[in-house]
Amino acid sequence: MAFIPSSIKSCLSNPDPHVNYSAKFTTIQDPLQKELQRATLGKAKEFGTLGAPEVLTFGENFIRAFKGKKVLDIGTYTGISALAWALALPDDGEVLTMDIDLNNYKKFGVPIISKHPETFKKIKAVEAPALETLDELIADGQSGTFDFAFIDADKENYENYYNRVVTLLKSGGVVFLDNCLWGGRVTVEEHLENDPLCAAIHKTNRIIFQDSRTYSALLNFGDGTHVAFKV
């Protein structure tokens, strides 16, 4: 079975005191976020894929700073990232969250997020392969209209997600890609040769670094957050 790093441990149980200290003085969570995090950690399978709270707070800060209104969220899971973006958006903002399977979102996210109707109404969930949804948005003429995007889905398609998202972002828009250090494995040649997911992440990191369409930085934040700003 492929290695799946637990992003959320970066702030909750990482043995590095510097990581924990930084996360402590970064993370701010709404009560809804805390409730959904507890529900996911307590009952959902594969809870290790839950985004690190400090990464979500960092993304919220970007959205609020440039008053973003349109957000792409690739990889819904229980809705923890979609909730973060919705909380940061103004009343007329929208998060388009997409996943091939929304069962976890319907089971855990919807009952909790819907307690706050004003936040819940900002989230539009699409159950379909994200590449199909992104291609439909491009075909619909929505290129250059989104403010922010978060990619935390199947790593084999990270390159494809990134390329489509850059097309859809407006100039000055920002995309975060989660898990871009893959538990540190991207630095080990053996893993790059034997772990297809690790190799896909490494390839995407290199593509982003060399991409003339964006300015970027790979941060040792969470499980590695690659941040790219569209030119």
From TrEMBL:
Keywords assigned by UniProt, alphabetized: Methyltransferase, S-adenosyl-L-methionine, Transferase
Alphabetized Pfam families for the sequence: Methyltransf_3
Domain of life (superkingdom): Eukaryota
The keyword Iron belongs to this UniProt entry's keyword annotation: no
Gene Ontology molecular function: O-methyltransferase activity; S-adenosylmethionine-dependent methyltransferase activity
GO BP annotation list: methylation
InterPro entries (alphabetical): Cation-dep_OMT, SAM-dependent_MTases_sf, SAM_O-MeTrfase
Keyword DNA-binding: no
Protein family: Belongs to the class I-like SAM-binding methyltransferase superfamily. Cation-dependent O-methyltransferase family.
Protein name listed in UniProt: Uncharacterized protein
Source organism of the structure: Caenorhabditis angaria
